[in-house]
Amino acid sequence: MAQDELTILIPKEHWPKNVLRMLTPCLRKLGDSHGHIIIAAQPARGALLLKGPSEKIDAAKPGLRALIEEHFPEADIPAELCKESEQPEAEVEEAVQTDAYGDEPLDVEVPEAAPEASPAEAADATPAVPSADSAQGLAVKALQRAYNTKSASALRIALGAAYAAGVDPARLEEAEGWLKELSAAASLGSALQRAESVAEIQTTLDAARTAGVSESKLEEAELVLGRLSSQEALAEAMEAGREAQLREALAAARACGVEEAALAAAEAQLCSLAAECELTAATELLISLEEAGAVDEESEVAFAAAVREAATAGVRATMIAEAETRLNRLVAAREAQQGARRPAASEPSPKRRKTEPAEDGDLLTQWARRTLELCFLKCCKKRAVEEEDFDLAMLLKSLEPEVVERAERAKTLCQGPDTSGAADATQLEEVRRQKREAVEREDYDRAAELKALEQQLQSARQLEEAHASAAAARLLADSDIEERVKGFFPLLAEQGRKCPELWEVVEAELR
């Protein structure tokens, strides 16, 4: 049998993205239903190629036209497929004799139009059930099959043939409802795929519900609509920057399955807003205490903790800078008060003066310098291990006990005589003993008072540590490298000059 070829050209600009994914199986199915002719898409040429016997190709044209209308909505119907539509009578005859799916032509005759009945006869007459082999019966079967394919284009063609065959109006009305349903379902699917706006999906969803689209498709659309709505609400809450609104929007977005990336960004902003609120409250409390002259060590430690948490959570830099300025002012005032009370440093032995670098300045500065030296040693040793410079790591490890001992000695000199520290430790242990006894007696009021006293004694030493770290951070920020390494052991001073990038790591550790 001779093989003919037919090329249907469709401009490339009308080829939707990823159209081949859905089109190729449909073309293959259409070709198989017409004697296994070849129907292939050639997107590079902007063409559809049909190859097979000429009568098979002609029989496949209606089905191919339906596929083009469905998958290329913006393209005009090619001229090769419009010839029959130019002759209404021929189109009617072909529609009646051909299945909407492009099956083999049916050997039926189109009956002549019956004389129009009078209104009385039409009212009295009972609609006759069309014979299965009649034109109306075949058209009704084609309508049902087209509806089962869930293709609006195929149903539209079958409906035109049904009108031409004179199918009962009730059947036509039912088919019109099917067409509205399939068209609405197609529009809904397209809107869900684009997911451009909530308003578009909502409008399409309402139309689909009115047209009687299946509940499963409506539920799927509701899920997409809810996810898109919660995502837009989350973006608005992030832009508004209000903690309560963002917290509520984040909970709704998580319930609707919004992408993890959007949730992570919102959670980070929520943490930042919460830390900002806590820092604001801590600042207001500190201002009130300053005005009343009641700033104590515990309130200062609490404010310093709020500043650190806010910096970690990514609170605005201007707010952090203002809080740090206020904290530094408090630290400076307390240092001035403590400087008058501290005893003079004891004179080191001649042997220690020969082996240790010189120390200068007041006691807190010495402690800050030793704290800076110890922190630099730890950061330097960590980097040496990461770079597998084990010789340097071993030298630094051997130096570490002396650096720690120097830092502890500077701390002791700054905090006062050892007898004071021992007295504090004894007092703390006594408070803990009394607290345990109060708990055993179930005297919880007394236990609460002792717990507060215990925390106050513990915070006193913690505050001294915080002062030393803050002083070391200021020394690092306000001096050049030579000033920083002044008084360091020679090996550490050399590393401080050779590796300036390490100072950024040290600064982060101190803060």
Count of discrete structural domains:
4
Low-confidence runs of at least 5 consecutive residues? 84-128, 342-361
Query: Largest sheet, order of strands side by side?
Result: 1-3-2
Overall geometry: elongated
Q: What percentage of the residues does DSSP assign to strands (E)?
A: under 5%
User: What is the number of helical segments per DSSP (H or I, 4+ residues)?
Assistant: 21
The helix/strand class is mainly alpha
Q: How far apart, in Å, are the first and last alpha carbons? A: 88 Å
Q: Report the average pLDDT across residues.
A: 76
Organism: Symbiodinium natans
Protein name: UVR domain-containing protein
InterPro entries: UVR_dom
Pfam families: UVR
Descriptive account of the structure:
This protein folds into 4 domains: 4-110 and 131-182, no CATH class; 183-246, no CATH class; 259-341, no CATH class; 363-511, no CATH class. It has 21 helices and 3 strands. It has 511 residues and is mainly alpha-helical. The protein is elongated and about 115 Å long. The protein has a 3-stranded antiparallel sheet. Helices cover 71% and strands 3% of the residues.
Q: What are the main properties of this structure?
A:
single chain; 511 residues; mainly alpha; three-stranded antiparallel beta sheet; 21 helices
